[in-house]
Amino acid sequence: MNNFQEKVTFIWDLADLLRGTYKRNEYQKVILPFTVLKRFDSSLEHSKKDIISEYNQFKDQFDDLGHLYAAAKDKDGNELGFFNYSEYDFKSLLADPEHIEENLMHYLDCFSPNVQDIFDNFYIKTHIARLSKANLLLLLIKKFSESKVDLHPDRVSNHEMGTIFEELIRKFAEQSNEEAGEHFTPRDVVELMTKLMFIENGLTLQEKNLIRLIYDPACGTGGMLTSCKDYINEINKSIEVVLYGQEINQEIYAICKADMLIKGEQAENIKGPSSTLSDDQLPNEKFHYMISNPPYGRKWEQDKEVVFNEAEKGYSGRFGAGTPRINDGQLLFLQHMLSKMKDDEKSRIAVITNGSPLFTGDAGSGESNIRKWIIENDYLEAIIGLPEQLFYNTGIRTYVWILTNEKPDERVGKIQLIDSSSKFKKMRKSLGNKRNYLHEEDITGILDLYSKFEENDNSKIFDNEDFGYTKVVVERPLQLNYKINEERLDNLYAINAFAKFAESKSKDLDIKLKEEETGKQKQEAIFSALKKIDGVYTNWDKFEAQAKKALKPFNLSSALIKNIIIALSEHDDEAEYVADGKGNKKPDAKLRDTEKIPLKKDIEDYFEEEVIKYYSDAWMDRKKDKIGYEINFTQHFYKYEPPRPLEEIEADIKKVTAEIQELIKEDLDEV
């Protein structure tokens, strides 16, 4: 590629013009749309006269300007996919500096709708007004008209232009660090995900004239989509790769769509700007490959009405397996992608999440039910734990999930976990939270672990059932003793009905005080009546008889008397069991517990070994059984490291203490 880096550097350096008027993290808001505008302007140069002639000839005969697409062609006769019927271009704009803002606005209004959509989402007109006010607009147009930034298709092909644009996006993303992390995935991570998705493919990529559809539901600037197409075309250039995506952020959507249009892709397949979860703009499409880095831990409250409606449809909707808690939509994106798999062909998915979707949520929760559905349908092929500090906006551990609707025979019913936390190199200079990167040898090492599909320190292979468990409720009998003393009587104030005796709803102060006083007297009278019950009881029925007798004058409800008895009781392992009307032992809610019993274990055997051995009178309430799934990734790769010897720790403490004392001495000497 001739002068590729020179063009990138020149355009990048134009940002210096904006210093003072724009903040550093705002430079891309101007430079990227003007780069796109310059490319469109250069690309239209060959057919400019034909478009204007076509427009002037038929402008009064058609309601829309769709016929102008056919007039906008490159020198080889290929349609560009966009047009502009204004007589202005970058050169003629400079010829009238007094009216450059007005003329540039007119120029923008004459673009085809697909290009206007891009610039509307760039908010370019707002920036034009801002630049004009700062006396920078004419200067910027002049700079973009210099030969060093000649973006004419004769000098820069669509592919080269896409690469230039991608490099600018990357540089701006790295410069803005944390803000960029929401929309830009580092190249090393994209490369790994791409290769993991394609490393095993029953969909052979060697056949001629195949069509392969690739989708990213949170496509950002489109880097993942481009990476996939480049990978496929390196293998087989005859394959027609069609890219699809959707993006919620307006400016990022504009960047992605512009990049696709510049590269000659079908830019209309990039949808947005809107949320994929609540506004799926590709409802009828299914895809061969899907790749994405959806947002971590972001609330989906704005999407909840549509999401809940979809969930109610069951598996005919996108979220039939369940809905996670409102503060994290990662598992919704995962379900959405699985719903987009081909019905009669193989589909593969590579998606990044943080640790939350692996284990958050107990049995019966939305998260657990989604994992249950994914695993029991045998969609999950592998999870790769990545090193920390790979992303611009977060240093936490992240994971790549590989999913498919058609596993190879050796992987059927299996899930591979790969720990690649140690496979990274340190960066010379940090970019936000990104302090590490995946070197080519690291990526190769991870792919090797995946491909060999063998057990070792960094690769574990499990049956699907290994991640499932039955959550069983374990009950222990209610055993209480009953006694009247001041401490236990105070517990009665925690009973709502008892406390209300001393409350009044009257707005008349005199009446209110009188009613409250009467209530307090009733409470004291109840205390006095109960104090007549002597001794300690260990049998509910016997104490209940005494309590009812003492409380009979107060005409209390059965429910309140029961609550009073409980308030006057304490657990006692030596007391008699409390029974219901049928003589069955009542459970003690305070002693209630649960056990997570692996699906592969017999529940009765487990209960005998792990519970009855310690609590012989315990029992299981099997009506409350729930099946759950979780992937405790770290647990499977945990390595015990014994603490350092005390002597070594003591020696370190003495050394540090001596150093501190020496520093204090030096400070005192200086004084």
Written description of the protein model:
A hairpin with a 2-residue loop joins strand 9 and strand 10. The strands form 4 sheets. A 9-stranded mixed sheet has the order 3-2-1-4-5-7-6-8-11, with helices on both faces. The protein is of the alpha/beta class and 671 residues long. It folds into 4 domains: 166 residues, Up-down Bundle (Ferritin), CATH 1.20.1260; 291 residues, Vaccinia Virus protein VP39 (Rossmann fold), CATH 3.40.50.150; 95 residues, no CATH class; 31 residues. The protein is built from 25 helices and 17 strands. Helix 6 packs across helix 12 and helix 10 crosses helix 11. The relative contact order is 0.07.
